[in-house]
Design goal:
The chain is mainly alpha-helical. 64% of the residues lie in helices and 3% in strands. The protein has a domain at 539-708: Cytochrome Bc1 Complex, Chain D, domain 2, CATH 1.10.760.10. It holds the Pfam family COX1.
Length: 710
Amino acid sequence: MSAINTNVEHFEYDNKIVRNFALASIIFAIVGLLVGVLIATQLFMPSANITQYFTFGRIRALHTNAVIFAFVGNAIFAGVYYSLQRLCKARLFSDLLSKIHFWGWQLIILSAAITLPLGMSTSKEYAELEWPIDIAIALIWVVFGINMFGTILKRRERHLYVAIWFYIATFVTIALLHIINSLAIPVSWTKSYSIYAGVQDALVQWWYGHNAVAFFLTTPFLGLMYYYLPKMANRPVYSYKLSILHFWSLIFLYIWAGPHHLLYTSLPDWAQSLGTVFSIMLIAPSWGGMINGLLTLRGAWDSVREDPRLKMMVVGITAYGMATFEGPMLSLKNINAIAHYTDWIPAHVHVGALGWNGFLSFAIMYYMIPKIYGNEMFSKKLMNAHFWLGTLGILFWAVPMYIAGFTQGMMWKEFTAEGNLKYGSFLETTLQIIPMYMMRAFGGLLYLSGALIGAYNIFKTMLVGKLIANEAAQAPALEKVFVAQGSDTYWHRWLERKPMPLLVGALVVVAIGSMIELMPTLMVKSNVPTIASVMPYTPLELEGRDLYIREGCVSCHSQMIRPFRSETERYGEYSKAGEFVYDHPFLWGSKRTGPDLHREGGKYPDSWHYHHMREPSSMSPGSIMPAYDWLLSQKLNIADTKNKLKAMKTLGVPYDDYAIAHGEEDLKIQAKGIADNLAKEGIKVAPDKEIIALIAYLQRIGTDIKKGQQ
């Protein structure tokens, strides 16, 4: 035992940075949810696709980035900075770094808001931003890490509370994920190509994509739950030992689960199986965290009835439990075969996003804002109204999408007694679920209404009170404490007092699964068998593919035919790993709002594609696809064509020097051929228009296999 420390130090907490991140979070919550309601409306009202810059394909990524990184990201930083100072009994390490972090993050969000509607996208889910912005994200993340660890190192509290473990794991893992997934060869300031191709790119992307959910939308919120829930309920965390088991098992198992997004695809079977096994195992730590949270409320359920913040926490934690049970279930191949590519998946995602992330973010702000303004929330009734509108919004969003998902999965697979597809036209399924899309938009509107009420309530609270920008605090200086070795948690008690070993331990735990999963697919060639007939894209096809990426076509169309009879009957021969070896990036997609396109090449004449892009309903009556009429008039920009070919050659695509030198010439020859072909059918279009390049790409997709069979 040590002597009582009488060396009390006086310091101040920085509440201004907390206020700034909270304000940004609230503003971007409204923006992100508003864009979400717009894209939900576009799926049953194509006329809502206003201008080429606000089509579903372009602004879906704007919605996901806004809610994940702007709304939720800012809420994380506000919650972390508020709790970290109090858990460490120290002011943040650097006021300057705090300001750089805040303004840097907002500039990144602004750059996303500008570039994504302009079509500057990598197409990789949750990682659509181009390479200069990726570098900025990495730098600002490092600033956040230095500020966090600097605060931890100058703490006056020896013990690192459980919330801080999760903050540390979040920082180190997101850095690893972001850097590895974002590696690319730049073509220009606004264009780059992923260094990975096809199967390898898909594996790396979903290693990142699933763990962006795990380590940006889950682990920091678990840390926030472990701090704010006990504070709100005035109860200690239910089980310290369970929190240890929860933390280490969660971060170890989560990193393996990415391949469950790629079941029945061209990914090697061993990687798919690993993803399934570890996804099933994830139920234990995930529910361990949920149970630890809910049992923290033992003896405080009367408070839950009275306190809207606790209501939000309970619904949020319950939503986390539901989503983390459903995720492993969707990783079972027999369930995945029905659910994947359907609206079941967005329903699953939004239970977690709206319930877990959304409700916890607002509950935390309802707790923090009165504390830093020295008053109470402006209106408890408005908090309750927000809670009920948000809860109803989640139900009206998710339930119709579950119904839509089941409907799609069943209709796509149904055969007649004669052995033919009962619903041969993909559009038949789409028309069946449009009422569900309308209900989803209504659910989103309810949730947005609740958020608007919450924003008004918070702003009024700020106006009534006065920010305590520098909150006075005091605590004894840190002194050395010895831990009894007889304790069964001695090893962890020691680790909790050593932030750098804890960081290294977390990094090692997440790196194990990452290396075992990624390295064989990246290094062992037999994992991706090549096909002799598969050739690189022509310069015109490559430009057309980039237009396909620019317009966000991958948001609605997959390019991966799974080995099911229902899919090969509908689309053609199933997809092979070797077909994608020159695809930088991969475009397998994760949702079919429209049909799969992997065997689209040669399926229709050039004129069909022209009319379909000009007015989709003229070729597919009842289609919910927007018109892309600007492609017919806009001139194809070929200024970077040579640089694109050079970048592809650097990545191993076999373009020789002659092909690169004569790329523009070959492009113009192929474009003239397509324009002449259209002219024969009475369609006059200049060969230098964007539509020509897109038609070239669409007519190429999936045709190399056919050439090899001739």
